[in-house]
Automatic annotation (TrEMBL):
The gene is lpxD. InterPro entries: Hexapep (IPR001451), LpxD (IPR007691), Trimer_LpxA-like_sf (IPR011004), UDP_GlcNAc_AcTrfase_non-rep (IPR020573). Residues 22-89 form the UDP-3-O-[3-hydroxymyristoyl] glucosamine N-acyltransferase non-repeat region domain. Pathway: Bacterial outer membrane biogenesis; LPS lipid A biosynthesis. The active site is at H241. It is an enzyme of class 2 (transferase). Its EC number is 2.3.1.191. This is UDP-3-O-acylglucosamine N-acyltransferase. It catalyses: a UDP-3-O-[(3R)-3-hydroxyacyl]-alpha-D-glucosamine + a (3R)-hydroxyacyl-[ACP] = a UDP-2-N,3-O-bis[(3R)-3-hydroxyacyl]-alpha-D-glucosamine + holo-[ACP] + H(+). It comes from Aequorivita xiaoshiensis. Homotrimer. One of its GO terms (biological process) is lipid A biosynthetic process.
Amino acid sequence: MKFTAAQIAGILDGTVEGNDSVEVSELSKIEEGSEGSLTFLANPKYTHFIYSTKASVTIVNNDFVATDKISTTLIRVENAYNAFSKLLEYYNQVKMNKTGIENPVFISESAKYGENLYLGAFSYIGENVRIGNNVKIYPNSYLGDNVSIGDNTVIFTGAKLYSETKVGESCVINSGVVIGADGFGFTPNEKGEYKKVPQTGNVILEDNVDVGPGTTIDRATLGSTLIKKGVKLDNQIQIAHNVTIGENTVIAAQTGVAGSTKIGKNCIIGGQVGIAGHIVIGDNVKIQAQSGIGRNVKDNETLQGSPALNYGDFNKSYVYFKNLPKIMERFNIVEKKLDNE
């Protein structure tokens, strides 16, 4: 896809300074710009690159003042960073504007779908599936019986949605995601053998939820595992059965949440955090990476460590911990003096 500087300025409500007919077909960093590429300058630390970049078009702030010769065409906007982000979003919309049903696919006779569907090859659509408008389902995806997908949702290659899963509008489900597999439910019998407990519930994703590649969300034993609107899940996260995650909470990669735990809204949870089951984590909680949470957490707490402590207490304790050899050396000297008295 090629765009002229004038077309890009029209999308961004910007002003062209230079050749408005120059064409670009790719995006680049300003220091790696090449002919035919588009870049931007937002951070003052990178200003010197604008005088040497080979990018054909550069987006800059309205107040940018050149102090040397520039060969790149400028597009002046109110905020270069926001404008470039808007352009990336537009570019993705154009790039992903696929429609139609490829072959081979399987669509059950009882399935129903809206307008502008894209369904990639080798996908499977089960009984009584309901798919909204403008949904894109990439190749090798699986939608089990009674799954529902809201408008404008994108399901990338190889995602698997088990039966009864409900997905809201404008969600993004990335490659390798598994939603609705059985929760880890087993009970020992009198011989010490583990017998599987049937998992009869489902998973519900509300609107504007993003799920990163390789993440798994288990169906509930009874009821629903619930991911509320605006939640963002990174790669390779495990969400166990009957978990609830509140609105606009974000969770980084390799975190695991055990069964029946309730996480509040607007929480920020770092990578490789382990969260025990059957606990409640309040709203606006921040948990640092590699922390272990085994207790209820009140609203607005910030935690670190394993088991996790209040963030301030952890930092104070860590000062002593890293100096523990010196502290013990002093302690031993004092102890010897006391023994000699």
